[in-house]
Amino acid sequence: MFLDLARDDVFRLETSRLWLRWPKASDAPAIERYCSRWEVAQYTARIPHPYPPGTAERFIFAAREGNASGRDLTLVITPVRGKREVIGAISLEGRAQDRLTLGYALAPEAWGKGYASEAVEAMVEAGFAMTSAVEIEASVRAENPVSRRVVEKAGFEFVSAGLQGAPARGGLVSCDRFRLTRDTWQLHRPLSAQIAALNQENTHEIP
Asked: Tens digit of pLDDT for each residue in 128-151?
């Protein structure tokens, strides 16, 4: 699904404050530190609590395999400045040929700084630019209004509320489901980005 560019482990997205890159083996301790905290795990469907030894390593292996196949794109989040230690992860998973599912988790010490919004915006841009997906879906726990604001800020629209499977939480949990279509994304992109995309399309049409 994803272009060959994203299938190489040197691939990286960069924002004003963050790098989003492939996870590597040396990231395991940092990933384990934030994933082992209940305030992170409780809002996710897959992060177990307690966090068993070796789980971070398995996450890294699975992420790299999914990235290399082009099926998914899972990146860790690090600050551009400072120690550049992993403070979270974000993913786009191919659930169908023309649809992606967004997911992310952030270390508590990185909350309240706008990092999640920054990472989501970059990932959405990459998802639509590097695949033919017509929409990106996101599910947010009903009791997590902060994540709801993050996806709404990125242009996602509320679709429905209901129960969804959460294996790490032991069954079904109440979630709000959101969707961002390619058409909506293009309408809300900055004007400069729209003009750049239009110019690129016109250039490709020149014989």
From this structure: 999 999 999 999 999 999 999 999
Write out residues in the chain with pLDDT < 50, as ranges: 192, 194-195, 198, 202-207
State which fold the 4-205 domain adopts: Aminopeptidase (3.40.630)
- 3-class secondary structure for the chain? CCCHHHHCCCCEEECCCEEEECCCHHHHHHHHHHHCCHHHHCCCCCCCCCCCCCHHHHHHHHHHHHHHHCCEEEEEEEECCCCCCCCEEEEEEEEECCEEEEEEEECHHHCCCCHHHHHHHHHHHHHHHHCCCCEEEEEEECCCHHHHHHHHHCCCEEEEEEEEEEHHHCEEEEEEEEEEEHHHHHHHCCHHHHHHHHHHHHHHHCC
Q: Which of 61, 72, 55, 70 is nearest to 23 (CA)?
A: 61
pTM attached to this predicted model: 0.91
